[in-house]
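REVIEWER CHECKLIST
Item 1: Sequence provided? yes
Item 2: Single chain? yes
Item 3: Sequence as submitted:
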Amino acid sequence: MKIRDCVLTPVKTISKEATIKEVAELLYETGQPIVVVDENNDPVGIISFIDVIKVFLPNFLDLIEDPDILKHLGVIDILKDKKTTKDLAAKDIMSSPVRTVDIDDSLLSAIAKMKKRMQRQLLVRDGDKIIGLITAREILKELIKIIKKTIEDSPEP
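Item 4: Structure as written out by the authors:
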């Protein structure tokens, strides 16, 4: 199976200078798991719902049993140079560099890249152009279809 069989298109983009509010609104409005941070029509990073949530975690410190977990999430590093969350821009919370797979790559190669980089999604390119997104969820759906078909097509004992 190829990535083209389960790619989600299109992906939404946002400027590096967009506010955290604009990023959150775009994620909410589109329902996509990520937005691509764009600079001069070139993807320079991605932002997920989790990246946005991490920004607001310090407001809920009293609910967290082990505050050291914030260090592991990168929250302290993000906030140390900013006065408030409203000062944050997309460039401050994006994950970079952008990881991609080619539309004609196999699903197994996408799974390997996700596992190696501990990511749940990758941008999909066709040549030099970003055309979509592949997620672990979409890969799982495709694998389930393959398993069901294999079971249905197998001869009964």
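Item 5: Key structural point noted by reviewer: Strands lie at 13-15, 34-39, 42-48, 100-102, 121-126, 129-135.
Item 6: Recommendation: ____
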